[in-house]
Write a structure and sequence with these properties.
This protein is α+β, with helices and mostly antiparallel strands. Helix content is 23%, strand content 38%. The chain has a six-stranded antiparallel beta sheet.
Length: 159
Amino acid sequence: MLALALPVAGFNVPQTRQEFVKVVAAGERGTEKQTFVVERGFDQVYEVLQERSTACLDVTVKRTAYVGYTEHSSSDYNPTLRKAGAGKAEFALQVVHRPRAIGENAPPGGMYVMAADIRSLGKGRTELVVYLPTMGYKRVARSLKEWAAGENTDCPKLR
């Protein structure tokens, strides 16, 4: 299900975070689910993820290539993090590719390329369940884990 990460004509891409999580949780080809626990309280984890995802993941990557002519393209990344009840939060990362693929049917905010469920386990422990394609976003997932654990990790390079 690499269509989750790449703008390919003719693929139906998830239109909501919930649909994206459902596809990945079902084990669709080209996706994976990673679960890890950090020894930090939910509020600390939420605060650092809010700070770092805004600073590091809310970016636009511009590219120029010469392919017989000069071609300009960009990818606009849009992270969201929201509380979903007591001790629970939801993270999502969407991307808008420009120019868009022919027939692309991405939702507002762009295609979903990553999501995470964050929940308190009590006593200074928090669980993160990350949903992502198997290609292209492992560095971002690793950064989420390291930030949640309190490590001062650099921003991942987005392409």
